[in-house]
Specification:
With 282 residues, the chain is of the alpha/beta class. 35% of the residues lie in helices and 20% in strands. The protein folds into two domains: 125 residues, Rossmann fold (3-Layer(aba) Sandwich); 146 residues, 3-Layer(aba) Sandwich (Rossmann fold), CATH 3.40.50.720.
Length: 282
């Protein structure tokens, strides 16, 4: 009997995760058997659980909020793109070594540019949040050569750190995008106009929290994206919809595409994502 490949997704909260279903679909395409669990952890038991998972024969882990930066130190080696992002969303065992990678950015860009037919080049982009989710997508966005990216965060110092760090990265080219740090206040953002607004915070996972964004941030915006995926509109998506943004989407497509990239790292099989994208998690 062929042993099932042991996989899991970790985060907090995790009950909403659709990762097991997505990867079971990929496994069916590949003709392999997997065991895919979703596990809620805390920062206090994260290290021990991850070490035990791989010691017990685990092959691969998907990592979601809030552990994308914490898990970086748990890898024996990290990929070039993870070296840039300083955040990972996947760990896997390769010949006895635990490797870390970040597939979020490539998943986002593929979903926007191919699935949604949305160009990023020469666009003005607002990324809300300066944590692991933002780190995961910034390098891939920068490679698409947008006109500018404003990183807005409640704690402006954190936005300033990440803007400074990514401005000096090797991924910057002769036609580098303008990276700007900002707070989330109306005063700080009132003079900007954005083609694309991305919510990369964890606010949408907690109904009691709110970004307190002013609707004017969406003036002339053509695309609003919440990296959180949901069957119903999140408060961020509701606000964008009220502001009459023509394209308001959640993170389902990005989730499926980054998962496909992760599945390839774990198994060597490139799954077809088209049907899952079309279903939007139904």
């Amino acid at each position: 009997m062929v042993k099932k490949i042991k996989l899991a997704v970790i985060g907090s909260p995790i009950s909403h995760s659709r990762s097991p279903e997505i990867h079971q679909d990929f496994a069916y395409q590949a003709g392999i058997d997997i065991e895919f669990s979703k596990v809620e952890l805390s920062k206090s038991n994260l290290d021990d659980w991850v070490h035990s998972f791989f010691l017990d024969g685990g092959k691969g882990l998907s990592i979601t909020l809030p552990f994308k930066e914490d898990c970086l130190s748990l890898a024996d080696e990290i990929s070039d793109r993870a070296e840039i992002t300083k955040a990972i969303n996947v760990l896997f065992n390769s010949k006895g070594k635990i490797l870390g990678d970040c597939t979020d950015g490539v998943g986002l860009v593929k979903d926007l540019t191919i699935n949604k037919n949305q160009s990023i080049k020469e666009k003005s982009i607002l990324v809300i949040g300066a944590g692991g989710a933002s780190r995961g997508i910034l390098p891939a966005l920068l490679k698409e050569q947008p006109k500018s990216i404003v990183i807005a965060n409640r704690t402006v110092e954190k936005a300033e750190r990440i803007a400074k760090e990514f401005s000096s990265k090797a991924l910057q080219t002769s036609k580098s995008s303008n990276l700007i740090a900002s707070s989330l206040s109306f005063e700080a953002l009132k003079d900007f106009e954005f083609d694309v607004v991305i919510n990369a915070t964890s606010v949408s996972t907690n109904p009691s929290q709110n970004l307190n964004l002013d609707e004017s941030v969406f003036r002339n915006t053509s695309l609003a994206l919440d990296l959180y995926y949901s069957q119903a509109f999140t408060p961020f998506m509701d606000l964008a919809d009220r502001a009459k943004v023509p394209n308001v989407i959640d993170g389902w497509g990005m989730l499926v595409e980054q998962a496909a990239e992760s599945f390839f790292l774990w198994t060597g099989f490139k799954p077809d994502t088209s049907e899952l994208i079309a279903k939007h998690g139904e």
